[in-house]
From TrEMBL:
Name assigned to this protein: Agmatine deiminase
EC class (word): hydrolase
Classification lineage: Bacteria, Pseudomonadati, Pseudomonadota, Betaproteobacteria, Burkholderiales
Biological-process GO terms, alphabetical: putrescine biosynthetic process
Record keywords, A-Z: Hydrolase
A Pfam entry, by short name: PAD_porph
Gene: aguA
Domain of life of the organism encoding this protein: Bacteria
Length: 372
């Protein structure tokens, strides 16, 4: 839920360009010939590495928030680096400061970037499923367009292809436009998506839900898609799934709940909770739901209307779960205790990400896993 730093959501929505493609144009293109389909592994499957981007620019973030976000990114990267390799894209002019903040725990790769949200700009890593080479690995380029042309994204539009090339995997193309933060999968055929993002005319004008589902079934190895309504036009992402609901494992979902009656998410999160409590997965199982309430308060230094105050945007890495803490002792502790129960055998590490959260994002938004 990234509230547009300097972008007016309403203005950009009104001026969103018409991509002009229809349902028939959603077929997978290009470099995945020979495989009948792909599957996106669960985030908890073993990783080869994590990808991030050291990209908050002063023009977009402002000097104070830029410095805070840089510190937070380094903190997250070094924490993940204690569990698995971390590759971080960095602009040439920011290389020295990134090196000083991240140290030797992070592999820095010089690459032009516009921002820090690798979950949305990076490739979605998949494995081939059926067909010829059953060991093939791919990276899907979902045509990042700045969350519906709300933000400059000339450099970030090339990140998915660049990372796939650097990782030495096939580049998988599609005309479908979306971001990784909109995709939540269990690795066993089920996905949770938000309609407000994936079916938004600022990404996929004129594309039906059935056509979108058909493309994603092939690209991600899905057999069941659970649609949440999300919320359109309230934040720059139009309501990404990874702020609202996450799979722990097949059949188990953690759900964000906002108890602030003044927040638009008060009604949104309750509607999502109702839908998920009634849902079944691809195997026909009724979902087990675990609620993670939002903090009642956050530290005042970076408090704002756009602050992403939610615990569901954690990141699962090899042997660990990296989660936020916001200074609310009760809800911070509740989150830590629940995650320990949900992820036995993994170390739960909570980190301060106030600078990132003040821009409307979280730990999951800044990371992209590369499975082995």
């Amino acid at each position: 839920m990234r509230i547009g730093l300097k972008a007016s959501v309403a203005a950009w929505l009104a001026g969103a360009r018409d991509h002009g493609f229809a349902d028939s144009a959603l077929s997978v293109e290009g470099i995945d010939h020979g495989a009948t389909g792909w599957v996106m592994p669960d985030e908890g499957a073993p990783h080869a590495a994590t990808w991030m981007a050291f990209g908050p620019s002063e023009d977009l973030w402002g000097r104070r928030l830029q410095a805070a976000a840089q510190d937070d990114l380094a903190r997250v990267a070094k924490t993940i680096g204690g569990f698995e390799p971390v590759n971080m894209l960095v602009r040439e002019e920011d290389y020295e400061i990134a090196q000083s903040k991240c140290g030797d725990a992070v592999n820095l790769i010089v690459q032009p970037v516009d921002d820090i949200w690798m979950r949305d700009t990076g490739p979605v890593f998949v494995r081939s499923h059926g067909g010829g080479d059953t060991h093939a690995k791919g990276g899907i380029d979902f045509n990042f367009n700045g969350w519906g042309d709300k933000q400059e994204h000339g450099h970030d539009a090339a990140v998915a292809r660049s990372v796939a090339q650097a990782a030495g995997i096939r580049q998988v193309s599609t005309r479908l436009v979306l971001e990784g933060g909109a995709l939540e999968v269990d690795g066993d055929g089920t996905a949770i998506l938000t309609e407000s993002c994936v079916l938004n005319p600022n990404r996929n004008p004129g594309v039906s839900k059935s056509a979108c589902e058909a493309a994603l079934r092939h690209l991600l190895g899905l057999r069941k898609i659970i649609w949440l309504p999300g919320v359109m036009g309230k934040d720059i992402t139009d309501g990404h799934t990874d702020f609202y609901a996450r799979f722990v494992r097949p059949g188990v979902v953690v759900v964000h709940l906002d108890d602030d009656t003044a927040s638009y998410d008060y009604a949104v999160t309750r509607r999502h909770l109702d839908i998920l409590r009634q849902a079944t997965d691809a195997a026909g199982r009724k979902l087990q739901i675990v609620v993670l309430p939002a903090p009642n308060s956050v530290r005042v230094a970076y408090e704002s209307d756009g602050f992403a105050a939610g615990y569901v945007n954690f990141y699962v890495c090899n042997g660990g779960v990296i989660a936020p803490q916001f200074g609310d002792r009760r809800t911070d502790r509740n989150t830590r205790d629940k995650l320990r129960d949900l992820f036995p055998g993994r170390e739960i590490v909570q980190v301060d990400i106030d600078g990132i959260a003040a821009a409307g994002g979280g730990i999951h938004c800044t990371t992209q896993q590369q499975p082995v």
